Amino acid sequence: MNRHSWTIRSYEVGDEKDYLKLMNIVFPSYKCDLKRWRWEFKENPFGFLQVFGNSDGKIVGTMGLIGVPIKVNEATVQGSQAVDLAVHPESRGKGLFVEMGRKLVQEAKSEGFVLSYGVPNEPAYHGHMKYGWFHVSEIPVLTKMISKKALVLFTLARLRDLFNQPHFKSILNIMVLIRNLKRSTGVLVKRYEPLRPDSFTKRTVTLFDEQFDRLWKEASVQHQLLIVRNEKYLNWRYIERPYSNYVILAIERSNAVEGYVVLSTEVRGFVGWKKGYIVDIFAKSKEGIHFLIQLACDYFAKANADLATCWMMKNQLYYGCLVEQGFVEDTFSSQKLICRINTSDSAFRSTYRSVEGNWFFTIGDSDCI
After folding, report:
1. Predicted TM-score (pTM) of this structure
2. Homologous superfamily of the 7-135+339-344 domain (CATH)
3. Cβ proximity of 79 and 38 under 8 Å
4. What confidence tens digit (pLDDT) does each residue in 282-301 have?
């Protein structure tokens, strides 16, 4: 197959069937079916774009953008997240990835998706860099050991990772690993001092309502660059998503919502250790952040989770709160955040660049969980 033996085109009704076949070939363990596709693409209230590589009447590649509203300084813009990149094994290494990407960003520009972001794996990262995406930041992954089993398994996994790295990086990471293990061991026997039980009331959320719009308006002023966490977005992302097992807890004071946290658990690996994820967390105050983190850790402990994980940028208040409550940075697991500006508007480009270092980003802003 040569470079020109395929055609690149936009989504057409009915493509979803062949899309599913391709996704299940490339990602056999990925939960991908029509229900999930409709939620993520067709029924996304913020829009979507999807392109396909077609060869001999078969779909051999796909790449998508799903719409998300993004707050950039004081304005809200139509943004998008790069998702579901897949190339059939027989069509790899021949330029299809980049050709699909170029087609997709052309459509993004014409449809008004002014800013796109993604959290790619290592191979996809290098491919995106070839057609206008740029590296924004590493996203720190913070972990808290809950059980002794987790401490042992985590240590073994990271030692394995060390042997797969260049010598110099291994030395640095050994030092980081020793420091973090020392902190983690202390966390297993020393809990963060509980907040007063009368600080907040808590409740389980089954539907986001207008109270969360008020929370967004009041709390978002503290941030310059983040996904808009209003009622419409939160319901689509966490309530309507198929097959999700999210537990959503809100805290209130004086009958007003002060914050929320989205939690998930998953059994991973052949040894069956249970991981807890702080998928999203958002609050008006430092006190509220601490209370939500404690609620999350208490929930994971009662669910017999072995460890808790959260993504958080270092320059965010939340990062310090997580560290205070026993989370340590897992330098082996950091994620790459990339972006692409799809508009020639110089004013927007200047505004984005002025706030780029202040991204607020959680696991829920990706499509990982």
Report:
1. 0.89
2. Gcn5-related N-acetyltransferase (GNAT) (3.40.630.30)
3. no
4. 999 999 999 999 999 999 99
